[in-house]
Amino acid sequence: MEPEKIFFVYPTLIRAGMAANGTYLPGISIKLNQKGTRHLMVITAGIMFRSVGMYFTEIDIQHEEKSIISNPTKSGKMDLLFADQTKNYLQLNIYSMFASSLNLDEDGLYRVIVKIYHSENGDKTGEPIDQKDCFFFVSHDEETVK
User: Fold this and answer.
1) Fold adopted by 5-140
2) 107: which of 36, 50, 73, 119 lies 20 to 30 Å off by Cα?
């Protein structure tokens, strides 16, 4: 078994007035007041890596199996929130990864997919080492949406 492992993944919608850094609470139910607005979302993930090695992390967000990220293979802003090292030199990290300009105009279930790959020269190589999914639900307030 590979020592690289994604422990958990969860989404948080960044709303007006929220800090765009730090630790975020999971958002499984997202209620919006309007359509036609692009949104910023943070995907928080706990990942175990070898201390030596290069890795590529990929996120995608899908609605009805279609990506709502314009280019899911390009990494966006990524913050390290927590880091620890085990006795056998494995890195235990928590990251916040930012996905911007998301179209959340459709009500329903959305899927977040995080994959890790080995990397050479900043590019992913081979098949994913590990993958984790999570879901969130979007709804719109019909009284305020026009």
Assistant:
1) Immunoglobulin-like (2.60.40)
2) 73
